[in-house]
Design goal:
Two copies of one chain form a homodimer.
Chain A (H helix, E strand, L loop, with lengths): L7 E2 H4 L12 E3 L5 E3 L2 E2 H11 L6 E5 H17 L4 E6 L6 H9 L3 E4 L2 H9 L8 E2 L6 H10 L2 E4 L2 H14 L3 E6 L21 H12 L4 E7 L9 H20 L6 E6 L19 H14 L3 E5 L2 H4 L3 E12 L4 E5 L8 H5 L5 E3 L19 E2 L18 E4 L2 E3 L7 E4 L21 E5 L2 E6 L4 H5 L8 H10 L16
Parallel strand pairs in A: 1-19, 5-21, 6-7, 6-13, 7-8, 8-9, 9-10, 10-11, 11-12, 12-13
Antiparallel strand pairs in A: 2-3, 3-4, 5-14, 14-15, 14-20, 15-18, 16-20, 17-19, 21-22
Helix pairs in contact in A: 3-10, 6-7, 9-10
């Protein structure tokens, strides 16, 4: 997996001018403290550690940023008078409080499993406005979806057959959309021979035929998905034009097409924190205005399925520096975060910016020499420590390619933009406990997900015949838990 | 991530002769049923489904295979009269029952976190014989390790400083090994400039100096690790020679070096199921006999840290086929397993063999045409479905590059060799429940890890102020759980 290396001078970034757009709710102050809304992240880190045993790392979210992101969509859609369902993709982040916020903001939910339907309902989303995606929906999942009246995206002929089967069994109608294979959308830049999603030409014709003869399945919409977040307004527009052509065609066949699902939302510029980065993404409003007329001309409701653009930039992983080491060629900042919490760099080479959340106490390093006016060279966090067969638990930042102040032990370090596909993909690898999640609302913060404890990890083994043996064993040893509070150990 | 494609004719594989070494405890019978020891996997799948609500997919392990793997090491080590600690790497698979088996077989444990120490102790491992690895050990973890008398592998100067700090605080001695940077081991084929592990030359000298003056830290061994599983006997031998040179040198300085930790064990040939594969790995006994004399000449105890070679080939993920789809170019077998359960192909392009566990009811396909004498072309499971920014929940096998019988819906499909770094890295992505684990012992099977339930997923949100709201919401809806048993829905 290639890791992109970028030359960044963090000394510039840490100068008096904030290095990220002032519109962000997570920002660096002139004196080198990272803030989330009105709160200093370091203070939250300290307070959380005082409150709980397992306090580092943790995910931290900005409520204001979530609101801003939704408003960007909503404002553009409303300004252009586009009928819409803004369907938040639950897989991106399933935190119940975050779902609740999004529901209150008027989003609908896009789900990919029976459990996502359930959690979205717990958060108050109306199941009738949910869209259920996936190639491998199972019969019991479809049964639940049909019962709840969830809209179902048909992905294949067998998927359609399963939906029919369930509808007949329940004597209940299902509203479906059909997902078209990108080949049908001829403007797609995808290598379509690899694409596993959607109905191919012949299948689509056949599917239409089947639905026409099936009373219990109502085709109410079409779906396309470019299989990537959007970063090209023109491509999006062309894709829409193709889909509108199909809307006409399918309507001519007598179907009452009311929804057009254009898939994933706008991408997130993960490199925007880098002053020298020339990566520019179009804004939400550019996308919306490019398609507004087309949508309105067909009197159809637009569905979007954003995930990353709704929550990606709302969260950071707050970690602590365990130490700095060198191999004479590179410096490595070892932190208490790992790929168990942020797997995106390892999984698909994603870039996540890192920042110290507080002024360093040590000064600067330059490749291992502790010169106060020097600089450290630090590699992107894509450089997780690993070998071919074995992943180690600690994230190691290789200090070769970035300039960065030399962090003291215990110094806070933030991994930016972890709001999407980080917490939701976290694991217990190396028996790490999955961290707490914290929400900042203006000048207050609160826990919105409890950190796991060791007992949670052992729970799946409870009740097994021989667990008693183990319990006895550990009870009779003279070993007890460490008495040092994890945080206090860093106070010198 | 490149996915290696191999041409395999499964029709050969399904002929009367088993396609894998007869010594394996998981094997295909002549009539096309996959067996684990004395039991038919399909029957276990059926029985498990009768017992539990969430029964597919599940991990299935062979106890006999675990025993065989350990015996291979033990026999070679004992035959060559090599003093040894066979340190099983807990990160590979932390199932408590599996740990218990390994402990009874005389393994010691290699751990990478405080929780791994705890679970290994629960399984009965003696902490004094454990080795604690990692770049980012935290003070509270070190405290626990020192209290328990775990041997600690020093990875860096700051790591050593932390150990000293903890020892002084506890007034207790620690036994440490020092991990050398591969540069010191000059025969390594690694790109050492990227390596984050171990002490570099100058650091090593300094570390020795520090330990010499520190009463509470006893240096009892050296450690090297090639950062890969072993597949080259000669390299291993050369690496040993270098380490023995260092053992002499460090002993001359007055240290009582009793252990030499040679790191990871032997690799696993994941492609051995493929009749045409020419990939051959040396056997355990070749490695052991290549170094036996060297070890014995120094009167030192060898430590090995195998993970994959102990548990890798002991487990399979048993899934069910949801359906087969085509994009006219490829056929895709959609199963109910996903990368949430087996992330290795996505994470580092690992090969995992797949097999139907039962004779297909449909016949063969050839690229979508249902010809009974045709064949399907099926791609490796590295082809998880995904897009640049978004991973979908279902594993999709693209039927282009492998010949395979056309599976009927509900047909069992096994992903081989998932015993290591699969269950231990599993996640709840797309809110999937982590599956049950089942152990086969001769003609019996039993559950050794309970499948998660939806409540487990929601648990971290319990106690949060507004959960009541959600609970009320879902309680007042008229939606209840699906009544269809997930298994029965496949019975036509």
């Amino acid at each position: 997996m290639a890791v992109e290396l970028l030359k960044v001078d963090y000394r510039t970034a840490l100068s008096s001018k904030p290095n990220i757009s002032t519109s962000s709710n997570i920002y660096m102050t002139g004196d080198g403290h990272l803030f989330c809304e009105n709160l200093c992240v370091k203070e939250i880190q300290y307070e959380l550690a005082m409150k709980t045993d397992y306090a580092s790392p943790f995910y931290l979210y900005s409520r204001a940023q979530i609101v801003d992101n939704v408003q960007q969509y909503k404002r553009s859609l409303e300004k252009n008078d586009v009928p819409h369902l803004l369907g938040y993709t639950v897989s991106a982040n399933y935190n119940l409080e975050i779902l609740r916020i999004l529901q209150k903001l008027g989003c609908s939910a896009v789900v990919a499993s029976i459990n996502e339907i359930k959690i979205a309902m717990m958060a108050g989303f109306n199941p009738n406005m949910m869209v259920y995606n996936g190639n491998g929906k199972q019969l019991n999942e479809l049964e639940f979806a049909v019962k709840c009246g969830v809209m179902i995206n048909v992905d294949s002929l067998f998927d359609l057959e399963h939906i029919r089967k369930v509808c007949r069994m329940l004597h209940k109608k299902a509203n479906v959309l059909m997902r078209l294979h990108p080949e049908i959308d001829s403007d797609s830049s995808q290598d379509i021979t690899e694409t596993k999603f959607g109905l191919h030409h012949k299948e689509f014709d056949k599917a239409l035929q089947i639905v026409k003869e099936e009373d219990l399945v109502d085709l109410i919409g079409l779906h396309c998905h470019l299989e990537t977040t959007l970063d090209d307004v023109q491509l999006f527009k062309e894709s829409l034009d193709t889909m509108l052509f199909w809307v006409d065609k399918v309507r001519e066949m007598g179907f009452d097409i009311r929804y057009l699902n254009m898939g994933e939302g706008i991408g997130l510029n993960y490199k925007r924190h880098i002053p020298q980065s020339d990566e520019i993404l179009p804004e939400t409003k550019d996308f919306i205005s490019s398609i507004a007329e087309g949508i309105k001309s067909k009197n159809i409701c637009l569905i979007l399925e954003p995930g990353i653009s709704i929550v990606g930039n709302t969260g950071i992983l707050v970690t602590k520096v365990v130490g700095v080491k060198t191999n004479e060629n590179k410096n490595f900042i070892v932190i208490d975060g790992s790929m168990a919490e942020v797997i995106r760099p390892s999984l698909y080479g994603a870039y996540h910016h890192i920042q110290l959340i507080e002024p360093t106490m040590v000064g600067y390093i330059n490749q291992g020499s502790h010169s106060p006016n020097g600089s450290a060279r630090l590699q992107t966090i894509g450089q997780w420590s690993w070998s071919k067969a074995l992943l180690w638990w600690s994230l190691i930042l290789s200090a070769e390619d970035y300039y960065m102040p030399y962090p003291h032990e215990g110094c806070g370090l933030a991994i930016r933009d972890v709001g999407a596909y980080c917490g939701s993909m976290s694991s217990n690898y190396s028996l790490r406990q999955r961290p707490a999640e914290v929400l900042v609302e203006g000048s207050r913060w609160r826990i919105i997900r409890h950190a796991e404890v060791f007992d949670d990890i052992v729970k799946p083994f409870i009740g097994l015949p021989s667990l008693g043996v183990y319990k006895d064993y550990i009870d009779t040893t003279e070993v007890h838990l460490g008495t040092l509070h994890p945080w206090l150990t860093w106070m010198h």
